[in-house]
Amino acid sequence: MNQKTRRLAAIMFTDIVGFTHLTQQDEAKALQILNSHKNQLEPLFASHQGRIIKMLGDGYLAIFDSTLQASKCAIKIQESLFQAQKDLPKNEQVRIRIGIHLGDVEEHDNDVFGDDVNIASRIESICPPGGICLSEDAARRVRGKLDYPLIGLGPMALKNIKNPVEVDQIKLPWAEAPALHRRIIKFMRQPVTLGIVSALAVLTLAGWWALTQSDGNLNSTSPGMNTSEESAVVEGANLDTDAESKISALAVLPFANLSPDEENEYFSDGLTEELINAFSKLTGLRVISRTSVFAYKDQAMELREIGQKLKVDAILEGSVRKSGDTVRISTQLIDVASDTQIWSQSFDRQVEDVFAIQDEITRAIVNTLKLQFLDGEGVPVELVAAATNNAEAYNLYLLGRFNWNKRTEDGFIKAIEFFSQAIELDPNYAEAFAGLADSFSLLANYGYQEAEVAFPLARKAAQKALELDNSLAEAHASLGLIHMIYDKEYAASETEFQKALELNPSYASAHQWYSTLLSNMGRKAEAQAQSELSLNLDPLSPVINFNVGSQYRDAGQYQEALQRFNQALEVEPGYDNALWGKFSVQQRLWDQEGMEETLLSLIEANPDDAAPYSQYAEYLMWHDRKEEAAEQMKIALTINEDEVSVLEDYAKLLYWGEQYDQALETASRALELNPQSTSALLTLTSANYKLGRDEAAASAYLRQLAHSGDSSNNDELEALLSELQIELDDLNFEFELENLGDLFAKFDLEKFIVVSINSHTDQENGSSCGDDAYRLAVLYAISGAEEKSVECLELAFEQNAPGLFELVVDPIFESLRKNPRVIRILEKMGIAVFASESDDASDD
């Protein structure tokens, strides 16, 4: 290839051990070995989707799209060589070294270049004969996915590579341990004497021996692990002095779990989350929330690309190796623009010192970047306080947050168990009470437990957390959520959300929940501003993208809404809320193919959910695909015949099919489950009207008005209701004909409709349709004012009213569907089912 291209690749170097010496001794034998080596290795590269860039004397440079394939190829190479030579004397065996690194390469003229190619080469050079060594970037992509374990060798000083590189080795049964001189850690904080270096070498060798004899397990007595305060090892310094003035936004990427036990992942995840919380307290620093950074966990992407996607100036990344009560934490801060290291440090400590380590990390970066850690009033704040002195309680708390973040029913239940156990060990552990409150709140909010059971427990836990520590933003936000959803006390909810954001301006969930509250209060502009803030802090959160998308949709900004719903689906494919949101926008854009595709995606993602099937049945009816619609509705009813939304859809389908009695029966069943179902009441109104039951139609319509609030501040409607001896304040009563006696005997349906129409029209602008044109079109059709109905249908199309699809099937509009203007509306919507019914359809 002549054109230069850059991409991420797994880079592999191989090298035959002692080949130069062999060539000097017996050139013919060396050539024979080289040919055999070539015949054996090259097919293995090809079978693992690798591409040989070139042969370097006795070794290869190859690249792979997948780090996992590169590692499997390396294992197969070493295994094949071992099996072919295991019966030969040791001095006749040919062994190779293999080094793998994941990094950025530039391809040009059938060759590859770049610093990462050099790193891969240097990793190969420190690998023991018969071994496979990987950089930490490569190792984290394959951990737990290979047939053999990985052993962490620690930071390596590689020739001509400026900063030490964490290296892991695949522990093959026949591979040797690396030579001692390969494992050198640079001390840059203070001068190191030769004696100290010698002592470190002895400790390192002993530590390596312990690792190789126990599959990488560390223990508190390991001679290679110093747990004193002075054991922090500085790997670098402030390498970019200009960076401190540029950094106003930070992302803390998930720390890699290098522990021998993969179950310790909760600890590395918990440490990441704790650091995010600590940095969020800093004045003037925007910190990306957990959801967005964890989207890049185990992703093969370069840091600069991640930083650009998250729109941050710097990235903090690191690794955690924990065994028993001992932990090693390595960190580095990277400037995104220059892709250079600003700061790095490693710590060897006891788990009980973890709060101190977190505090050291945050303060070191604060000092490096010359940031302030002050509250809103300029008072210094404690970045990382020891929330508990009980190490086991802290461990349980991390397990609780780990499970809570799964956002599943099982995850919430396990989180409650772990938080409760933490509280048993430390009854004054405020963060554990806050976690308990969050767990109960979302357990109810996600519909996994009755609100009457979960929210009171959440309230009790949140209040206890605040009693112990009134500065916990999470507890204030959780209390705000309870006030909003369960108590419907919006003023109290707003107070708690504002307090939470005062304590932690980077708390994305608080911004998100506050935006929902503001939207419920009708403060749309403020709601959208809070949504944008939450999105800025957590750009990859599916929930937040859905929330912002919904607000764009309600504001009529449909393309922006689609972008947000699609972003949510990119992060979490099959996310049902985002799919429903996308479907609702496609309805407003009359996107027929898009709607069907989205509904099929909903069915694929939720095959045991009845709602997508019943909604698909509606869609099929709009397109006159009646047999398919019946089949989809049958599936929905089989899954759940008592789901309100399914019964609502089924009642509509029966009504559209002119099976009015069955439609009334089904709508009544839906109202038994939800007396405020506007959809079921609408079906009751229309079906009763078609059956000539004006009183029953009026009763159902009254109930619609009661639940929609459309009866407020309407003097003419109030006067009409007074004739029926019904007060506006009583409209929430569930009207039934038998309860009204003979009041409806004198009821004038046409007069009632005229009053209802007048209540929706815009008298100032002279509009006959108001801001709910489709509903007015239905009322005009009932009253026989067809010209007015068509006028409102045309306006409904301009308003992108999703209900307009029912124009295709509602018997109310049967005579209007032959009107040329209505046919043109249907064609603009992408539905021309009824165009052939009219011979006189022509353009005006």
Commentary on this structure:
The protein has 34 helices and 15 strands. It has 844 residues and is an alpha+beta fold. Strands 1, 2, 3, 4, 5, 6, 7 and 8 form an 8-stranded mixed β-sheet that branches. Strands 9, 10, 11, 12, 13, 14 and 15 form a 7-stranded mixed β-sheet that branches. Mean pLDDT is 77; it is low at 176-245, 372-384, 727-747, 762-766 and 834-844.
Beta-strand level of the residues, as a percent range? 5-15%
Tell me the Rg in angstroms: 34 Å
In terms of quaternary structure, what is this? single chain
The count of strands amounts to 15
Low-confidence stretches: 176-245, 372-384, 727-747, 762-766, 834-844
- Helix content range: 40-55%
User: Please, what is the average pLDDT?
Assistant: 77
Largest sheet: 8 strands, mixed
Q: What is the straight-line distance between the termini?
A: 61 Å
Kindly name the structural category.
alpha+beta
Shape: globular
Tally of individual helices: 34
